[in-house]
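User: Okay, second chain of the day. Same drill as before: sequence in, structure tokens out.
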Amino acid sequence: NSLSAIMAEAESHRKVILLLDYDLKGRNLTKKVASMLQKRGMNVDTSFRREIRAMTNGLANHVEDLKRFSS
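Assistant: Same drill. Structure tokens below.
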């Protein structure tokens, strides 16, 4: 499944930046994946997620919505 693929890919890196959707499903998945990776001793960064949310004034609920904000 996709969660297994995320975990497998992440394990080959020292630091993981999580940027998932901002809806309820994305928030829950972010928490779940971050927790799982941190338990495996990985450095998980969610700061980009928070910064992008602030920069878009909450107008992007899905990662695909971000293209509206590019120039």
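The first helix runs from residue 2 to 10.

User: Thanks, on to the next one.
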